[in-house]
Specification:
It comes from Paramaledivibacter caminithermalis (strain DSM 15212 / CIP 107654 / DViRD3). This is Stage V sporulation protein AC. Keywords: Membrane, Transmembrane, Transmembrane helix. The protein has one domain. Helix content is 84%, strand content 0%. It contains eight helices and no strands. α2 crosses α3 and α6 packs antiparallel against α7. The longest helix is centred in the N-terminal third of the chain and has 28 residues. The termini are far apart. The model has no long low-confidence stretch (mean pLDDT 81).
Length: 152
């Protein structure tokens, strides 16, 4: 019984020690970085959309091309190592837009490229995005079937 009490008190002392040493995050600063970086990414996307509309594309086509460009930019900047640095500074502000989805696909692939193109890049490319895609496709099929059967 005494050993257990001693163990519990040591655990409490250790937790106090760790809490003193762990740096406290600045929530206001982190929130502002996330807000401004996420806003900047979305502003760039809106600028691209508006520019494409000015060149004569209709709204649907301009939005489609904008998504393609933003996914490319997210993947390209991840490949250069820039998006990861941005993500460390901006946190959720960099992962919420669609460019963050491209980063989630490319980052694992870049990490395992030394294992080859098939077993490294190919196998790890969809380690995070794969479940998201499967869930998205699966839920769209279920919703489509429900819509079909209930609107007949």
């Amino acid at each position: 019984m005494k050993k257990q009490i001693t163990k519990i008190s040591k655990e409490k002392e250790y937790k106090k020690y760790v809490n003193k040493k762990v740096p406290k995050p600045s929530y206001l600063k982190n929130s502002l970085w996330a807000f401004f970086v996420g806003g900047a990414i979305c502003t760039i996307a809106q600028f691209i959309t508006n520019t494409l509309k000015d060149f004569g594309l209709n709204k649907t086509d301009a939005n489609t091309v904008t998504v393609i460009i933003m996914v490319f930019l997210g993947a390209f900047l991840t490949g250069l190592g820039i998006y990861d640095k941005l993500g460390k500074k901006a946190g959720a502000g960099s992962i919420v837009p669609i460019s963050g989805f491209a980063n989630s696909i490319v980052a694992p692939a870049m990490e395992f490229k030394r294992e080859g193109y098939v077993l490294g890049v190919g196998a790890k490319m969809f380690s995070l995005a794969g479940p998201v895609l499967v869930y998205g496709f699966g839920s769209s099929v279920i919703i489509g079937l429900l819509y079909y059967f209930f609107t007949r």
